[in-house]
Specification:
Layout (H helix, E strand, L loop, with lengths): L6 H12 L6 H4 L10 H4 L7 E6 L7 H10 L4 E6 L6 H4 L1 H15 L3
Parallel strand pairs: 1-2
Amino acid sequence: PPEDCGGIWGYMEMMEEEDDEDFDPLDANESYIRERFDSIRKVGRITAPVMFAHSVEDALVPHRHGRMLHEKVTAPKRFLDLRGDHNTGFAVSMGDYLPFWADFLRDVLPE
């Protein structure tokens, strides 16, 4: 289980809640989060280019959360939809991931 869900009992509870179609792991498990970081309000302050890569199959952090953060960024940005779970999305999508990184860096780094 994810280490931030409160151990095996918290994980079991999280999995039961996940059957609910309105389940949001970030909202449902607030009691397991030790420190709150209000990303959605802070991300708009970023001035450097930002690359997002998030899996549509991520069961830990919903894909829509990544999209919401992406929408709030006003700096140059890109978003890559990965395949695979929270921990393996980059590896499963390696064929898309590496070229995406290369294109992003080529566009944002000075020559």
